[in-house]
Amino acid sequence: MAAAAGLPVRRAALRTLLAAAVVVCSAGAAWAQTLTPQPAPMPPDTTCQAEEARPPDPLRLHVALAAFMAAQGADLATTMYALGTQEYDEGNKAFDWLTHEPWLAGATKMAVATGFSYLLLKHHRQHPRLTFWLAVAGTAAYTATAIHNAGKVGPPPRR
Questions:
Q1: Which of 12-21, 28-37, 133-142 has the lowest mean pLDDT?
Q2: Hey, where are the domains in the chain?
Q3: Please, what is the end-to-end C-alpha distance for the chain in angstroms?
Q4: Distance CA 146, CA 153 (A)
Q5: Backbone CA torsion sign across 114, 119, 120, 124
Q6: Distances in Å between the alpha carbon of 45 and those of 38, 48, 51?
Q7: What band does 30 get if pLDDT is binned at 50, 70 and 90?
Q8: CA torsion sign, 52 to 55 to 61 to 63?
Q9: What angle do CA 147, 151, 156 make, to 5 degrees?
């Protein structure tokens, strides 16, 4: 019984010692900081300020690129569905050789779309309006292609 009564006292003593050690260490660190000489502030660098002065990419470009990628995915989905019916062939002859392996076709098409989006983001700072309107034009073209594909194939049959 006596051993059990001493256990909470030991825990309280350990907590107190631990708290004291933390206080002593933090006080020692603060004292060491006051003794260390602080370096003189560096003069402002004008080359870095030009980088920081640039505004971030606008939201409209990111929305246009998200719509572009969604349109690419819709085109891929409707194309693969049409090819899966065995009634249609790929109209893009540069892409035709990939359509026999659906995973390879999907990976290649989305990799090319991602690369194009990356190039638009990379060149946006030099040509903001051009890159935005290229993204919008690509979205319109691939949306029209996806709508065309879906109209040709029609809705999937009901089960």
A1: 28-37
A2: 1-35, 55-153
A3: 76
A4: 11
A5: positive
A6: 20, 6, 11
A7: very low
A8: positive
A9: 110
Percent of the chain with pLDDT over 90: 30
CA angle 105, 106, 112 (to 5 degrees): 90
Name the 3-class secondary structure at 119: helix
Structure tokens at 79: 């194309």
Residue 133: pLDDT above 90? Answer: yes
Give residue for tokens 């819709």. 74
CB 73 within 8 A of CB 142: no
* pLDDT, tens digit, 9 for 90 and up, residues 46-89: 555 545 555 555 788 999 999 999 999 999 999 888 888 888 88
